[in-house]
Amino acid sequence: MINHLCVLSEVAPSYAPAGRSLVAVCLRGDRADAGAEQALRDKLAGWFGRSVFDWQHLRTDRIPAALPPLPVIKRPGPSDRCELSPGLFACGDYRDGGTLDGAIRSGRATAEVVAHRLIMRRSAPLVARTGDRRGGPVA
Ligand SMILES: Cc1cc2nc3c(=O)[nH]c(=O)nc-3n(C[C@H](O)[C@H](O)[C@H](O)COP(=O)(O)OP(=O)(O)OC[C@H]3O[C@@H](n4cnc5c(N)ncnc54)[C@H](O)[C@@H]3O)c2cc1C
Question: What pLDDT, on a 0 to 100 scale, did the predictor assign at position 97?
Answer without folding.
Answer: 78
